[in-house]
Amino acid sequence: MLRPSIVPTVLAALAVSAAVPAAACDLTIEQGWVRTAPPGAPVMAGYGVLKAEGAATVALGTMTSPQFGAVELHETREQDGVARMRRVDAAEVPGRGELRLEPSGGHLMLMRPMKPLAAGDQVELRVAGCTFTLDVRDDAAGTDQGHHHHH
């Protein structure tokens, strides 16, 4: 049985621990955006700069979005003068470092959209215990929107 004098202390400790999230978000995303696609397109591409806030390397693991059937990380590489895209099964963001997702490089493949998305919409992306919001734009190549979202 708990002594009455420590009950308020225990209750206060429980309240504080309940307020701490189960998994801390150690990532941010800057300039996050998704390129619009023609109506009925089965995929859309996403870009941005993922940054690790802490000293530890962050494994990206499985990525999801409630707006898409699947999210994968892909990279484009030139091979024999031809640009080829392939899925990347594992990726990490080094501690206090970044991973750039950009056209003609590493990028997100957002597959099987649940509904059509247009410029001005937003896409929710969940990765490594974090939730990000990416803006849907016609083509943001060469623009610096400076968006930085995470929850």
Note the main attributes of this structure:
disordered C terminus; two-stranded antiparallel sheet; 1 helix; mainly beta; Immunoglobulin-like; disordered N terminus; 151 residues; nine-stranded mixed beta sheet
What does this structure look like?
With 151 residues, the chain is mainly beta. It has one domain (24-137): Immunoglobulin-like, CATH 2.60.40.1890. The chain has one helix and eleven strands. It has one helix at residues 7-19, and strands at residues 27-35, 43-52, 58-59, 63-64, 68-79, 82-88, 92-93, 98-101, 107-113, 122-127, 130-137. Mean pLDDT is 82; it is low at 1-22 and 141-151.
Quick recap of the structure?
By secondary structure, the chain is mainly beta. It has one helix at 7-19, and strands at residues 27-35, 43-52, 58-59, 63-64, 68-79, 82-88, 92-93, 98-101, 107-113, 122-127, 130-137. The longest helix is centred in the first third of the chain and has 13 residues, at 7-19.
